[in-house]
Amino acid sequence: MTPKLQNAGIDAWLVRFSERIDPAVQPWINAFCQDCRAAFGKLLVDLVPSYTTVLVQYDPGQLDDTGARRMIERVIERMAPDGSMGSGRLVEIPVWYDPSVGPELERIAARNDWTPQQVADAHAACEYQVFALGFVPGFAFMGMVSPRLAMPRLATPRQKVPRGSIAIAERQTSAYPQQTPGGWNLVGRTPVVLFDAERIPMTTLEPGDRVRFTPISRDTFIKLGGDTSPVEEVPQ
Fold it and tell me: Which pLDDT tens digit goes with each residue over 144-154?
């Protein structure tokens, strides 16, 4: 793999690893970020990993764009022989799968001639990679879900998606870290606090993490602090 560099202003370079979303790219991005932090040290202002790119922002008062590019190229040269490193930590997230908190369970089940339980089992059977954080703080874009679970976003988004809602959109899945509008298909809910501004780190998930969803009962969900309030109906 030979990443491409694009100038992104007076204080940043964009490193592009691929033109399409591919789970095989994630270890390269993880490795690059790790080595880039070590190489730049205090000269690094921020690293913003995404599905296929990493934005490297540096201190222009101490480093010009040519010097920054050379540092990035050296990082790439060191990591290029091994694209398997940086597999990321494994995070388990408990989920209560139920139509009252995951109303699209039944719609996905009907499309596949499954039961809602079979949909829950299929969703929990995979390990997902966190590609990026965005939309709201702590919202982790993960993939890839089974093609049989993939569903387009709702034509009419909900005005209020409860915190902790587990959702699917196309071949991605995520968990809403706070109550917010949203158009993803809801299949369950987790009691885990995914974002807390008073906590270090503030987010439960980070790009590069691997995630497994673990089914739990309603009673366990409640004991762990989960909110069983039903989801609002989607306007027709």
Answer: 999 999 999 99
